Amino acid sequence: MKSNKRIVLAYSGGLDTSIILKWLQENYKAEIIAYTADIGQVIDKKKIIKNAKRLGVKKIIIKNLKDTYVKDYIYPMIRGHAIYEGVYLLGTSIARPLIAKDQIRVAKKFKAYAVSHGSTGKGNDQVRFELGYHYFGPKIKIIAPWRIWNLKSRTDLINYAKKHKIPVPKDKKGASPFSVDDNLFHTSTEGKILENPKNSAPEFIFQRTVSPEKAPNNASFITIGFKNGDPVTVNGKKLSPSKLLERLNSIAGKNGIGRVDLVENRFIGIKSRGVYETPGGTLLINAHRAIESVTLDKKTMHKKDEIMPKYAELIYNGYWYSKARFKLQKIVDLKRNKVNGSVKLKLYKGNIIIVSRQTKSNAYSLKKVSFEENKTFNKSNVERFINFHKKKLK
Length: 394
Known about the structure:
Blueprint: E1 6-10, H1 15-28, E2 31-38, H2 45-54, E3 60-64, H3 66-79, H4 95-109, E4 114-116, H5 125-136, E5 141-143, H6 145-148, H7 154-163, E6 179-182, E7 187-190, E8 220-227, E9 230-234, E10 237-238, H8 241-254, E11 259-265, E12 271-277, H9 279-293, H10 298-316, H11 323-332, E13 341-348, E14 351-358, H12 366-369, H13 380-390
Parallel strand pairs: 1-2, 1-4, 2-3, 4-5
Antiparallel strand pairs: 6-7, 7-12, 8-9, 8-13, 9-10, 11-12, 13-14
Helix pairs in contact: 3-8, 4-5, 8-9, 10-11
Protein backbone atom coordinates (compact mmCIF):
# COMPACT_ATOMS: atom_id res chain seq x y z
CA MET A 1 0.00 0.00 0.00
CA LYS A 2 1.58 3.25 -1.17
CA SER A 3 0.66 6.24 0.93
CA ASN A 4 2.20 9.48 2.07
CA LYS A 5 0.42 9.07 5.40
CA ARG A 6 1.91 6.91 8.13
CA ILE A 7 0.53 5.57 11.42
CA VAL A 8 2.69 3.96 14.09
CA LEU A 9 0.79 1.15 15.80
CA ALA A 10 1.79 -0.41 19.12
CA TYR A 11 1.78 -3.97 17.79
CA SER A 12 2.10 -7.25 19.71
CA GLY A 13 1.60 -9.62 16.80
CA GLY A 14 -1.47 -11.13 18.42
CA LEU A 15 -5.07 -11.31 17.26
CA ASP A 16 -6.33 -7.96 18.58
CA THR A 17 -3.52 -5.77 17.27
CA SER A 18 -3.49 -7.63 13.95
CA ILE A 19 -7.19 -6.80 13.57
CA ILE A 20 -6.45 -3.20 14.49
CA LEU A 21 -3.65 -3.09 11.92
CA LYS A 22 -5.98 -4.25 9.13
CA TRP A 23 -8.75 -1.92 10.31
CA LEU A 24 -6.38 1.06 10.22
CA GLN A 25 -5.32 0.17 6.68
CA GLU A 26 -8.95 0.00 5.56
CA ASN A 27 -10.20 3.12 7.28
CA TYR A 28 -7.27 5.51 7.04
CA LYS A 29 -5.61 4.48 3.76
CA ALA A 30 -2.24 4.89 5.45
CA GLU A 31 1.03 3.02 5.65
CA ILE A 32 1.18 1.24 9.02
CA ILE A 33 4.45 0.98 10.90
CA ALA A 34 4.30 -1.94 13.34
CA TYR A 35 6.11 -1.03 16.56
CA THR A 36 6.87 -3.45 19.40
CA ALA A 37 8.65 -2.46 22.61
CA ASP A 38 10.53 -5.38 24.12
CA ILE A 39 10.26 -4.77 27.86
CA GLY A 40 10.73 -8.37 28.91
CA GLN A 41 7.34 -9.80 27.97
CA VAL A 42 6.99 -13.23 26.41
CA ILE A 43 7.78 -12.30 22.83
CA ASP A 44 7.95 -14.21 19.56
CA LYS A 45 9.83 -11.92 17.17
CA LYS A 46 9.42 -14.27 14.22
CA LYS A 47 5.64 -14.38 14.78
CA ILE A 48 5.43 -10.59 15.03
CA ILE A 49 7.34 -10.12 11.80
CA LYS A 50 5.45 -12.90 9.98
CA ASN A 51 2.00 -11.63 11.01
CA ALA A 52 2.82 -8.03 10.15
CA LYS A 53 4.25 -8.94 6.75
CA ARG A 54 1.18 -11.06 6.00
CA LEU A 55 -0.84 -7.86 6.38
CA GLY A 56 1.41 -5.97 4.01
CA VAL A 57 3.51 -4.08 6.55
CA LYS A 58 6.91 -3.06 5.20
CA LYS A 59 8.40 -1.45 8.29
CA ILE A 60 8.45 -3.53 11.49
CA ILE A 61 10.34 -2.20 14.50
CA ILE A 62 11.11 -4.28 17.60
CA LYS A 63 13.01 -2.21 20.14
CA ASN A 64 14.82 -3.72 23.14
CA LEU A 65 14.04 -1.40 26.06
CA LYS A 66 14.54 -3.82 28.96
CA ASP A 67 17.45 -2.07 30.70
CA THR A 68 15.88 1.35 30.17
CA TYR A 69 12.60 0.05 31.57
CA VAL A 70 14.18 -1.28 34.75
CA LYS A 71 16.72 1.50 35.33
CA ASP A 72 14.65 4.58 34.48
CA TYR A 73 11.12 3.47 35.36
CA ILE A 74 11.05 0.54 37.78
CA TYR A 75 13.97 1.61 39.96
CA PRO A 76 12.67 5.17 40.57
CA MET A 77 9.30 3.66 41.48
CA ILE A 78 10.92 1.17 43.87
CA ARG A 79 12.79 4.05 45.53
CA GLY A 80 9.36 5.62 46.12
CA HIS A 81 7.95 2.34 47.53
CA ALA A 82 4.96 2.86 45.25
CA ILE A 83 2.06 0.55 46.08
CA TYR A 84 -1.46 1.28 44.80
CA GLU A 85 -4.34 0.57 47.17
CA GLY A 86 -2.14 -1.30 49.59
CA VAL A 87 -0.99 -4.21 47.40
CA TYR A 88 -0.52 -3.43 43.69
CA LEU A 89 3.10 -2.82 42.62
CA LEU A 90 2.02 -1.08 39.39
CA GLY A 91 3.59 -3.46 36.90
CA THR A 92 1.33 -2.52 33.99
CA SER A 93 1.05 1.15 34.94
CA ILE A 94 4.79 1.81 34.85
CA ALA A 95 5.32 0.12 31.47
CA ARG A 96 2.96 2.26 29.40
CA PRO A 97 4.79 5.61 29.73
CA LEU A 98 7.99 4.13 28.29
CA ILE A 99 6.19 2.48 25.37
CA ALA A 100 4.35 5.73 24.61
CA LYS A 101 7.59 7.74 24.70
CA ASP A 102 9.43 5.45 22.29
CA GLN A 103 6.42 5.09 20.01
CA ILE A 104 6.35 8.87 19.59
CA ARG A 105 10.11 8.82 18.90
CA VAL A 106 9.45 6.40 16.05
CA ALA A 107 6.54 8.50 14.79
CA LYS A 108 8.72 11.61 14.64
CA LYS A 109 11.59 9.74 12.99
CA PHE A 110 9.37 8.48 10.16
CA LYS A 111 7.18 11.60 10.02
CA ALA A 112 4.02 9.71 10.92
CA TYR A 113 0.94 11.85 11.39
CA ALA A 114 -0.66 9.49 13.93
CA VAL A 115 -0.09 6.80 16.54
CA SER A 116 -2.46 4.05 17.62
CA HIS A 117 -2.80 1.53 20.47
CA GLY A 118 -4.88 -1.56 21.23
CA SER A 119 -6.19 -0.60 24.67
CA THR A 120 -9.89 -1.15 25.30
CA GLY A 121 -12.35 1.62 26.08
CA LYS A 122 -12.94 0.44 29.64
CA GLY A 123 -9.36 0.18 30.86
CA ASN A 124 -6.67 2.39 32.32
CA ASP A 125 -4.08 1.79 29.61
CA GLN A 126 -5.77 4.03 27.06
CA VAL A 127 -5.25 6.92 29.48
CA ARG A 128 -1.64 6.02 30.21
CA PHE A 129 -0.73 5.68 26.55
CA GLU A 130 -2.46 8.85 25.48
CA LEU A 131 -1.08 11.05 28.25
CA GLY A 132 2.38 9.84 27.23
CA TYR A 133 1.66 10.49 23.56
CA HIS A 134 0.47 14.00 24.34
CA TYR A 135 3.52 14.81 26.49
CA PHE A 136 6.04 13.88 23.79
CA GLY A 137 4.02 14.54 20.64
CA PRO A 138 1.14 16.94 21.30
CA LYS A 139 0.60 17.57 17.58
CA ILE A 140 0.51 13.89 16.61
CA LYS A 141 -2.98 12.44 16.09
CA ILE A 142 -4.11 9.60 18.40
CA ILE A 143 -6.28 6.81 17.01
CA ALA A 144 -8.01 4.56 19.59
CA PRO A 145 -9.90 1.90 17.58
CA TRP A 146 -11.70 0.33 20.55
CA ARG A 147 -13.47 3.64 21.18
CA ILE A 148 -14.58 4.30 17.61
CA TRP A 149 -15.00 1.12 15.55
CA ASN A 150 -18.19 -0.94 15.10
CA LEU A 151 -16.69 -4.20 16.36
CA LYS A 152 -18.64 -4.59 19.59
CA SER A 153 -17.87 -8.12 20.75
CA ARG A 154 -15.32 -10.91 20.65
CA THR A 155 -17.48 -12.62 18.05
CA ASP A 156 -17.32 -9.51 15.85
CA LEU A 157 -13.54 -9.50 16.11
CA ILE A 158 -13.22 -13.17 15.22
CA ASN A 159 -15.54 -12.78 12.24
CA TYR A 160 -13.54 -9.77 11.07
CA ALA A 161 -10.33 -11.77 11.44
CA LYS A 162 -11.73 -14.68 9.41
CA LYS A 163 -12.93 -12.32 6.69
CA HIS A 164 -9.42 -10.90 6.30
CA LYS A 165 -7.64 -14.25 6.78
CA ILE A 166 -6.04 -13.23 10.06
CA PRO A 167 -5.13 -16.39 12.05
CA VAL A 168 -7.31 -16.94 15.13
CA PRO A 169 -5.53 -18.82 17.93
CA LYS A 170 -7.50 -21.84 19.14
CA ASP A 171 -7.69 -20.55 22.71
CA LYS A 172 -9.43 -17.41 21.46
CA LYS A 173 -12.30 -19.16 19.71
CA GLY A 174 -15.61 -19.20 21.51
CA ALA A 175 -15.52 -17.63 24.96
CA SER A 176 -13.39 -14.61 25.62
CA PRO A 177 -9.88 -15.48 26.80
CA PHE A 178 -8.18 -14.23 29.93
CA SER A 179 -6.66 -10.83 29.33
CA VAL A 180 -2.95 -11.16 30.06
CA ASP A 181 -0.29 -8.45 30.18
CA ASP A 182 3.30 -9.22 31.00
CA ASN A 183 6.67 -7.54 31.11
CA LEU A 184 9.91 -7.98 32.99
CA PHE A 185 8.35 -6.63 36.19
CA HIS A 186 5.06 -8.51 36.35
CA THR A 187 2.24 -10.52 34.82
CA SER A 188 -1.41 -9.55 35.15
CA THR A 189 -4.41 -11.75 34.42
CA GLU A 190 -7.99 -10.50 34.14
CA GLY A 191 -11.35 -11.60 32.75
CA LYS A 192 -13.44 -14.75 32.49
CA ILE A 193 -14.13 -16.35 35.91
CA LEU A 194 -11.98 -13.72 37.63
CA GLU A 195 -14.56 -11.05 36.84
CA ASN A 196 -16.76 -12.38 39.65
CA PRO A 197 -14.87 -11.66 42.89
CA LYS A 198 -16.51 -14.63 44.63
CA ASN A 199 -14.52 -17.01 42.41
CA SER A 200 -11.06 -18.05 43.50
CA ALA A 201 -8.24 -17.73 41.00
CA PRO A 202 -7.48 -21.10 39.34
CA GLU A 203 -3.91 -22.26 39.75
CA PHE A 204 -3.33 -22.67 36.01
CA ILE A 205 -3.44 -18.90 35.38
CA PHE A 206 -0.20 -18.28 37.28
CA GLN A 207 2.75 -18.05 34.93
CA ARG A 208 5.83 -17.03 36.88
CA THR A 209 5.19 -18.16 40.46
CA VAL A 210 4.55 -21.56 41.98
CA SER A 211 1.96 -21.85 44.73
CA PRO A 212 3.43 -21.49 48.23
CA GLU A 213 2.27 -25.06 48.96
CA LYS A 214 4.43 -26.39 46.11
CA ALA A 215 7.44 -24.21 46.86
CA PRO A 216 10.61 -25.95 48.13
CA ASN A 217 10.59 -27.25 51.70
CA ASN A 218 14.02 -25.69 52.24
CA ALA A 219 14.45 -21.94 52.46
CA SER A 220 16.42 -19.93 49.89
CA PHE A 221 18.73 -17.08 50.86
CA ILE A 222 19.55 -14.07 48.73
CA THR A 223 21.57 -10.90 49.33
CA ILE A 224 20.78 -7.72 47.39
CA GLY A 225 23.37 -4.95 47.31
CA PHE A 226 22.34 -1.30 46.92
CA LYS A 227 24.21 1.79 45.72
CA ASN A 228 22.61 5.24 45.74
CA GLY A 229 19.24 3.66 46.40
CA ASP A 230 19.28 1.23 43.48
CA PRO A 231 20.02 -2.52 43.49
CA VAL A 232 23.33 -3.34 41.82
CA THR A 233 24.29 -6.85 42.99
CA VAL A 234 22.71 -10.21 43.77
CA ASN A 235 24.73 -12.44 46.08
CA GLY A 236 27.74 -10.22 45.46
CA LYS A 237 27.56 -10.39 41.66
CA LYS A 238 27.08 -7.16 39.76
CA LEU A 239 24.33 -7.40 37.14
CA SER A 240 22.72 -5.09 34.58
CA PRO A 241 19.28 -3.79 35.64
CA SER A 242 17.37 -6.24 33.43
CA LYS A 243 19.54 -9.24 34.34
CA LEU A 244 19.25 -8.40 38.03
CA LEU A 245 15.45 -8.33 37.87
CA GLU A 246 15.40 -11.55 35.83
CA ARG A 247 17.49 -13.22 38.52
CA LEU A 248 15.21 -12.02 41.31
CA ASN A 249 12.10 -13.09 39.37
CA SER A 250 13.46 -16.60 39.05
CA ILE A 251 14.43 -17.01 42.70
CA ALA A 252 11.26 -15.43 44.10
CA GLY A 253 8.95 -17.23 41.65
CA LYS A 254 10.31 -20.63 42.65
CA ASN A 255 9.54 -19.77 46.28
CA GLY A 256 5.92 -18.74 45.70
CA ILE A 257 6.53 -15.03 46.27
CA GLY A 258 4.80 -12.12 44.58
CA ARG A 259 1.15 -13.09 44.10
CA VAL A 260 -1.63 -10.53 44.57
CA ASP A 261 -5.38 -10.88 44.03
CA LEU A 262 -6.87 -7.40 43.91
CA VAL A 263 -10.18 -5.67 43.27
CA GLU A 264 -8.95 -2.22 42.28
CA ASN A 265 -10.52 1.15 41.55
CA ARG A 266 -9.73 2.09 37.98
CA PHE A 267 -8.99 5.70 37.08
CA ILE A 268 -11.99 5.84 34.74
CA GLY A 269 -14.38 5.05 37.59
CA ILE A 270 -15.12 1.32 37.60
CA LYS A 271 -13.85 -1.52 39.76
CA SER A 272 -11.98 -4.47 38.27
CA ARG A 273 -10.48 -7.66 39.61
CA GLY A 274 -6.98 -8.70 38.61
CA VAL A 275 -4.42 -11.28 39.63
CA TYR A 276 -0.85 -10.03 39.58
CA GLU A 277 2.53 -11.75 39.86
CA THR A 278 5.48 -9.52 40.74
CA PRO A 279 8.09 -11.87 42.26
CA GLY A 280 11.33 -9.92 41.82
CA GLY A 281 9.63 -6.59 42.48
CA THR A 282 8.27 -7.88 45.79
CA LEU A 283 11.81 -8.76 46.87
CA LEU A 284 13.11 -5.36 45.79
CA ILE A 285 10.55 -3.28 47.63
CA ASN A 286 11.04 -5.27 50.84
CA ALA A 287 14.82 -5.11 50.60
CA HIS A 288 14.79 -1.41 49.76
CA ARG A 289 12.70 -0.54 52.80
CA ALA A 290 15.09 -2.62 54.90
CA ILE A 291 18.22 -0.85 53.68
CA GLU A 292 16.59 2.56 54.13
CA SER A 293 15.77 1.67 57.74
CA VAL A 294 19.48 1.71 58.58
CA THR A 295 20.61 4.50 56.25
CA LEU A 296 17.98 7.27 56.33
CA ASP A 297 16.81 9.54 59.14
CA LYS A 298 13.31 9.43 60.56
CA LYS A 299 12.13 12.70 58.95
CA THR A 300 13.12 11.60 55.46
CA MET A 301 11.57 8.14 55.81
CA HIS A 302 8.31 9.44 57.20
CA LYS A 303 8.04 12.09 54.49
CA LYS A 304 8.42 9.39 51.85
CA ASP A 305 5.70 7.31 53.50
CA GLU A 306 3.47 10.37 53.62
CA ILE A 307 3.68 11.10 49.90
CA MET A 308 3.66 7.48 48.70
CA PRO A 309 -0.13 7.06 48.22
CA LYS A 310 -0.28 10.14 45.99
CA TYR A 311 2.90 9.13 44.17
CA ALA A 312 1.47 5.65 43.48
CA GLU A 313 -1.86 7.07 42.35
CA LEU A 314 -0.16 9.40 39.87
CA ILE A 315 1.65 6.43 38.33
CA TYR A 316 -1.52 4.33 38.26
CA ASN A 317 -3.47 7.13 36.57
CA GLY A 318 -0.86 7.67 33.86
CA TYR A 319 0.76 10.83 35.19
CA TRP A 320 4.36 9.60 35.08
CA TYR A 321 5.38 12.63 33.02
CA SER A 322 3.44 15.16 35.07
CA LYS A 323 4.90 18.04 37.07
CA ALA A 324 3.28 16.54 40.16
CA ARG A 325 5.15 13.22 39.77
CA PHE A 326 8.44 14.97 38.98
CA LYS A 327 8.03 17.02 42.15
CA LEU A 328 7.38 13.96 44.31
CA GLN A 329 10.30 12.11 42.71
CA LYS A 330 12.63 14.87 43.93
CA ILE A 331 11.40 14.25 47.47
CA VAL A 332 11.82 10.48 47.01
CA ASP A 333 15.40 10.90 45.79
CA LEU A 334 16.50 13.69 48.13
CA LYS A 335 18.89 11.49 50.12
CA ARG A 336 19.21 8.44 47.89
CA ASN A 337 23.01 8.89 47.89
CA LYS A 338 22.95 7.71 51.51
CA VAL A 339 21.16 4.44 50.70
CA ASN A 340 24.10 2.06 50.35
CA GLY A 341 24.68 -1.43 51.70
CA SER A 342 23.16 -4.88 51.45
CA VAL A 343 20.15 -6.81 52.71
CA LYS A 344 20.00 -10.57 53.14
CA LEU A 345 16.59 -12.18 52.71
CA LYS A 346 15.24 -15.61 53.58
CA LEU A 347 12.57 -16.89 51.18
CA TYR A 348 10.25 -19.64 52.27
CA LYS A 349 6.88 -20.69 50.83
CA GLY A 350 5.62 -17.23 49.89
CA ASN A 351 7.27 -15.47 52.84
CA ILE A 352 10.11 -12.95 52.93
CA ILE A 353 12.13 -12.71 56.14
CA ILE A 354 14.78 -10.05 56.67
CA VAL A 355 17.91 -11.86 57.88
CA SER A 356 20.38 -8.99 58.04
CA ARG A 357 21.13 -5.41 56.98
CA GLN A 358 24.70 -4.22 56.43
CA THR A 359 25.84 -0.66 55.75
CA LYS A 360 28.66 1.75 56.47
CA SER A 361 26.12 4.45 57.28
CA ASN A 362 26.10 5.87 60.79
CA ALA A 363 22.34 6.59 60.77
CA TYR A 364 21.87 3.59 63.06
CA SER A 365 23.92 3.97 66.24
CA LEU A 366 24.72 0.83 68.19
CA LYS A 367 25.97 2.95 71.05
CA LYS A 368 22.75 4.92 71.37
CA VAL A 369 20.41 1.98 71.04
CA SER A 370 22.29 -0.41 73.31
CA PHE A 371 20.63 -1.46 76.58
CA GLU A 372 24.05 -1.34 78.16
CA GLU A 373 24.76 1.85 80.12
CA ASN A 374 26.45 4.50 77.98
CA LYS A 375 26.93 8.24 77.83
CA THR A 376 25.94 8.83 74.22
CA PHE A 377 22.23 9.25 74.98
CA ASN A 378 21.19 11.80 77.61
CA LYS A 379 18.15 10.30 79.33
CA SER A 380 17.68 13.40 81.49
CA ASN A 381 16.30 15.20 78.43
CA VAL A 382 13.50 12.68 78.01
CA GLU A 383 11.37 14.11 80.82
CA ARG A 384 11.45 17.58 79.24
CA PHE A 385 10.59 15.98 75.91
CA ILE A 386 7.52 14.25 77.39
CA ASN A 387 6.37 17.37 79.25
CA PHE A 388 6.59 19.38 76.01
CA HIS A 389 4.32 16.93 74.24
CA LYS A 390 1.85 16.78 77.13
CA LYS A 391 1.00 20.40 76.33
CA LYS A 392 0.04 19.37 72.79
CA LEU A 393 -2.75 17.16 74.12
CA LYS A 394 -4.79 20.19 75.14
